[in-house]
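Working notes for the structural subgroup meeting. M.R. asked for a predicted model of this chain before we commit to crystallization trials. I am recording the input and output together here so anyone reviewing the notebook later can reproduce the run.

Input as submitted:
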Amino acid sequence: MSAQPETAHAPDLLYSEAEEDLRSAVRSLLTARADAPAVIAATESATPYDQELWASLASGIGAAGLLVPEKLGGQGAGHREAAVVLEELGRGVVPAPYLTSSVVATEVLLALDPLGGPAGELLADLAAGRRTAVLALPFATPPAGARAAMAGGLERTVTTVADAAADVLLVPTAEGLYAVGTAGTGVTVEPLVPLDLTRPLASVTLAGAEGTLLAEAGPAAVAVERGLLSGAGLLASEQLGIAEWCLTETVRHTRERHQFNRPVGSFQALKHRMAQLWLEVVSARAAARNAADALAAGAPDAPLAVAVAQAYCSKVAVHAAEECVQLHGGIGMTWEHPAHLYLKRAKADSTAYGTPGRHHETVARLTELPAP
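Returned structure, recorded in token form:
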């Protein structure tokens, strides 16, 4: 008897009522606590992000535990809801360790089946917002590079680690995955000067550091790959938020800005540019929602959906930010206007968890037809 073909996952690209309610709560918080002047001021401070804002987002709203089942101390939601949070964080270019801690590190721990032990304890702390954790890998590491990252030991230096000022580092080694406290001896976190000032990068050096083994090499490699895949997939939602803000703000500005006694947005050349950008943003929304939905459903084609979303959304976010700066004219070049923050975040995001070129290669590999 021949095997029946597996039923393809039918994606749901629409937002549910619960997701829209979550969006409203997150947007209200960010509007009150992380408007453009506050974000610009934060980039000039020595603190990586607003701790009170993070506490309100992580534990007050419960966003940090969206991916964590209720039995493990979380909210029992999923990737679709986490994607909504990232859209809003992208729309405000908010400095917060949500992507690195509440998505990537959390997904790594969830893949270890943490019903008890140190992995479960750490996961409960992350879900409650009591601690943050990051994967000690370069921010540009793609999902396909997870197994290559499982090399060496605890004595190492890792460059360009995003949000490395977290409480815990998840360090992949040839022996397995270790949890290392950043406050412990033998751990040096040296801040770097990033392009995107709203997401700090650092060089992490481990020399004589002590860590807790969370998983052996085999399960650890699978867990790291899952974390990077979710990070890349939901990063597309952050890029969508960036592009949507840039389009909305550009349309608003060109309506209000007058030249030759008429709004500059009424000139045909600018209309065409904004119409093209609108088409790109709509397509980016479909790609980002498809990736989030595939991850939430655990669909077999989730790696393909993630690769497609990243290959497309990265370019759309950069294009939208470039158009935002250009169509704002001289004001778009100033430090006081937030347009430059969106351009820098879009540029930095375009190399996070793999470049668009790497994701194009993944799409080509996953869609290659079998030989006859």
